[in-house]
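Page 42, continued from yesterday. The earlier attempt failed because a stray header line got pasted into the input along with the sequence. Redoing it now with the clean sequence only.
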Amino acid sequence: MASAAAGGVAPAPPASGEQGDGAKRKSVTGTRKTVAALFLLPTLVLLGALVVYPIGYSVLRSFLNQSGDSFAGIDNYKALFTDDGIRTALKNNVIWVVFAPTVATALGLVFAVLTERVRWGTAFKLVVFMPMAISMLAAGIIFRLVYDQDPDKGVANAVWVGVHDTFAESSAFPNAHPGRESPLKGDSGAKGAFITKEPVRAGQPVLLPLVGVAPDQMPSGAKDAKAPPSEPGKVTGTAWQDFTRGKGVGKLGGVDAGELGYPGMKVEAVKDGRVVDSAKVGGDGTFTLSDKADGAQLRLPASNFREPYNGVDWLGPSLITPAVIGAYVWMWAGFAMVLIAAGLAGMPRELLEAARVDGATEWQVFRRVTVPLLAPVLAVVLVTLMINVLKIFDLILIIPPGSSQDDANVLALELFRKGFSEDQPGIASAIAVFLLLLVIPMMLFNIRRLRREARR
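This time it went through. Structure tokens are written below.
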């Protein structure tokens, strides 16, 4: 440069559009505010179209009449507390808000704490969290089958019936009843039981023919029936299926070839209203009572004809809401577990160890140290689930059958019904606004809590 200057040659000026060394580069798209506005514009448009406008229109529509052409005042909001369907939905929403988040959070806490120090904890957490990958629709279909009344189809009733039958075995002869030639009659003193018309005598065999059990439903222990032998000083008899396949085959009131006994059926000897002796029928239908039965009437108690236990009506009006809450907890307990496990991972371990060193039991450590330290996380999980259950809709629509859907009704489902099935958009909009008002305080609480935690 010095030699060029000395030779009289001046340096060339910067080309048009180029900047000098000390000059600042200008952004191609302008200022930062313009760039921010360009990036935010699509989001703001979508937010306005999908959130702000629907909320504003719902608020406006909630003050209009059914046709939407005149102002209705607060009539639509009055219906929230006078309409029977909406009041049932409000009551069920209270049950949902109280129990569903509490149970799901409690289970999540238990799962997170118990699996924290076991080798297979990760696999267990994966299994518990897997229902979150299933849509509400699919979960509703699954639990509609789980709660089926038929124990051969519904898992819940299959387990329930299995446990029940372990302690109270069902009768094998629910449809059995005396035949035309039977000496039995209905017992007026014991509903569902049958008793002989006349007292029996020792040494005189008694025939107790019954009908009504389908051949393919006879117990596996049933054998060909035998005529009772005569035993001095004892009352003997036969209780059997007095039916032989084929028209005109066999004799009514008599034991014929091919007819089966009633194994396990109980026979009681009753005198003056008291049971003096009892026996169980063998595979061939025969039974033997002691001399105490002499002069007594023989009774077949009602327990012989008890209908098979068919489980619990999970989808009936009285249990439908707890049943649907169970399906919800199955899905969302994994969500609570994951968040609480994250809180456990960040917990200072020295506090837990200090409590153990001071002699605290594991239960005391859990109750007095772990739970208080997890209180912020538990609050966030609980409030998040409360917001979620206020909007519950899919499970209520899918799981309850039509006969009990009214009993399981919630606000979100009632909103759908009023808006589409009953053509009352004003009331539906009022329900939507009411739900929004219920959710806003919980949302604000969660936001404040999360911001407070972020600042720590």
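Notes: Residues 84-114 form the longest helix (31 residues).
Reminder to self: strip header lines before submitting.
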